[in-house]
Amino acid sequence: MPELPEVEVLRRGLNPALKGRRLERMQVFNASLRWPVSEHLAQACQGKALLEVSRRSKYLLFRFTSGTMLVHLGMSGTVQLIAATAPLQKHDHVQWEFEGGQSLRFNDPRRFGSVLWLSERDTAPALNTDGDGVNHKASAAGDEVNHKASAANAHSLGRAQALLARLGPEPFDEAFSGEHLFRSSRRRKLAVKPWLLSGEPVVGVGNIYACEALFRAGIDPRRSAGRISLRRYQRLAQCIVEVLDEAIAAGGSTLRDFVSSHGQSGEFQNRYTVYASEGKACQRCGESIKRFIQAQRSSFACLRCQR
DNA sequence: ATTTGACCCTGCATGC
DNA sequence: TGCATGCAGGGTCAAA
Predict the structure, then answer these.
(1) What is the pLDDT of residues A10-21, one digit of tens each?
(2) Which of A102, A114, A148, A176 has its CA 20 to 30 Å from the CA of residue A94?
(3) Which nucleotides along chain B are within 7 A of a protein C-beta?
(4) What's the pLDDT tens digit per position in A24-49?
């Protein structure tokens, strides 16, 4: 479901409702997500005030006074504001009850999502993931009963840090530009579309918006990243920002199940030019839109307009 | 060092 | 109606 625009729409909906409120209780109904939800997570954030909901890439970051909770929605995850007493739905896995009766629920049929914790100490500085990973492997190998719980906790902690440490620039940051795309792509043979999806040159761009941005920029998704000119990358960078901006303004894309924190559907799916449009006429030239597979993902393009 | 393909899991649409 | 198949917005990981 969620690429950057959808996650950003959620973030914007959550802040007015939850910012500044104390978290009274966190309940885990099903801990088996992408990684097990740490048993210590609830204990770490309960009773703390939520300072702000922010976003990095496709991760929602709930900044508490004591640390940060990271929520990733995977393919099918949603978070919804709801009354704490509302009946549980199928695939509701986690609930956070805030003061004043406002609650947030995490629902995810496919369970590709994750809920992880970063303690205050590790939140701000420390991008020192190397030493971290080694330590946790060592302690997990030791595996005494006494240390089991803390090792599991430390592991999920290192996990969150590692996820954030590897990310490329945000598309709306100054660090992101055509020059950046051009420089970081030299000698890369990988096709430009899977390269964009890798999160290395830019984060938050998923399958839909990669297809749409490449169409706007007139670039064939199959072209090697290293064989695209600076001029064309400048255009692409601009198109990526444009597409994401427009999608956020439209409330995101609702293909199956995406809804905002208040249950609103997005509208951007009505403005796709190529995504999910196989066989339709290209809006620019009338040629039939083609679908093909790259890195196990569907790509859509007009092969006359995109070179 | 890059790049690939298998895999994580459920739900839905399609065709037989 | 049931059943098998293929597909889906995310990402990790081992192996080539």
Answers:
(1) 999 999 999 999
(2) A148
(3) 2-12
(4) 999 999 999 999 999 999 999 999 99
Q: Can A297 be counted among the known catalytic residues?
A: yes
Distance A254 CA to B15 C1' (A): 26
Q: Which nucleotide is nearest to A108 (CA to C1')?
A: B10
CA of A72 to C1' of B4 (A): 25
Quick one: which H or E segment has residue A119? strand A114-119
* Predicted TM-score (pTM) above 0.85: yes
Final residue belonging to a domain, choices A165, A200, A219: A165
% helix, strand, coil for chain A, step of 5: 35, 25, 40
Residues A147 and A187 in one domain: no
The answer to whether strand C lies under 7 Å from the CB of residue A261 is no
CA of residue A276 to C1' of nucleotide C12, angstroms: 26
Same domain? A144 vs A224: no
Catalytic residue among A11, A58, A63, A105: A58
Residues A83 and A208 in one domain: no
Structural domain that includes position A222: 178-301
A134 φ, ψ (degrees, to nearest 5): -60, -45
Alpha helices by DSSP H, listed for A199-306, are: 207-217, 230-249
Q: Which amino acid appears at position A87 of this protein?
A: P
